[in-house]
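tmp note - Alanine--tRNA ligase
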Amino acid sequence: MSSVNDIRSAYLGFYQKNGHEIVASSPLVPRNDPTLMFTNAGMVQFKDYFTGRSAAPYPRATTSQKCVRAGGKHNDLDNVGYTARHHTFFEMLGNFSFGDYFKERAIELAWTLVTKEFGLAKDKLCVTVYHDDEEAFGLWKKIAGLSEDKIIRIATSDNFWQMGDTGPCGPCSEIFFDHGDHIPGGPPGSPNEDGDRFIEIWNLVFMQFEQIAPGNRVPLPRPSIDTGMGLERVAAVMQGVHDNYDIDLFKALIRASVEATGVPAEGANRASHRIIADHLRATSFLIADGVLPSNEGRGYVLRRIMRRAMRHAHLLGAADPLMWRLVPALIREMGQAYPELLRAEALITETLRLEEIRFRRTLARGLTLLDDATGSLTSGATLDGETAFKLYDTYGFPLDLTQDALRARGIAVDTDAFQTAMQRQKAEARANWSGSGDTATETVWFSLRDKLGATEFLGYSAEAAEGQVL
Ligand code: ATP
Ligand code: MG
Ligand code: MG
Ligand code: MG
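out:
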């Protein structure tokens, strides 16, 4: 059986053998794009080469890129633990051509990799093409020998990639693995919702146009290639399991969580262990790349991920902070490929420990409040915004944590009323400050307050200090 670490090396080795430079993953906080919250694809670090803003130092590259999709445009947070194929943090394997080879060679290499190097059965694979991309359709037929019913034309934006409103763009082809019809379908929220039979493993982007303005698209003089393959998904296929959480890497992390809590990963507790394992990776890698929990921006996304995991640790009955105790297992699995984890081990451990100590001060009481408020509600009901806001403001429950806590019971949250309560509290705080006449001080105060959180800044009791203001 190939381990995740073997598969990563095999991918990079294959493309290196085929003339690609192995380039290290860039950090999760993008250096070259202030509009992007987290690096969410392999191409991010190469953007300027694709747009032509700077010259690529090599014509071809290959990477295993750390990605987080838990904020901004790509947000998979609500899928984690509920689908077999989504993580908040994952590794994207990719190969890139900067104006060098194009569609034909990209398809040739990809097909050789999946069927020869990785040994996947051809009859389990199918591909998609953008509906008018006749060239790709013909190439899949010729190179892969796929029958026409295995080359599916798709007309939606899923198969047309754009960097932004302007800039490079082009059609994509995606490779899917068919896990077979023994996987029963299921209703929304079930493990087999949306696409768990046919799993998308690889996306090949053919950058062949430049969008100059809306409605004005011209061919690029030197088209480029950008691909992204989910390492955990291909590992599941290669290890003969359906579910990403059953691959060697996740099994080791879940084992650590089971050992630390003494609770087996069965029944309702299975999802908790999976979420803990997933969020352990996301939080540790984010901290290693310099993000710390806070009440705004990236730091607040980190805090939300941490606290979601910590609620699950609590559900498992953990009597003491749990997450920090799992860091050694993560380092054992991933420290060799990502030495930054080792360098940041002390910071990761302390940050996780302190955040969990802090959240545990209010977590149990917040959950009691939530139970009291929803005890009489049944599936299809909505929790009022005032209670959700109180949980947020007084007990440190991010809105999405409350939503996640109620999801299994089919209860929604009145998010409009939540926002109204938030605005009202901000307005009240402002009103209490009016009349000093010192607008400069007020401006500074309000910006600090927004940054640090109202109650923290006012130095209330430990309980109130858990409140946050975005
Ligand atoms: P999906 O439709 O399954 O959400 P996607 O089309 O959003 O995937 P792409 O943006 O094409 O994904 O990313 C390239 C590859 O990265 C995908 O083919 C998949 O293998 C992997 N990938 C994407 N999102 C995730 C995730 N949240 N967790 C794990 N792997 C992912
Ligand atoms: Mg997606
Ligand atoms: Mg997709
Ligand atoms: Mg895709």
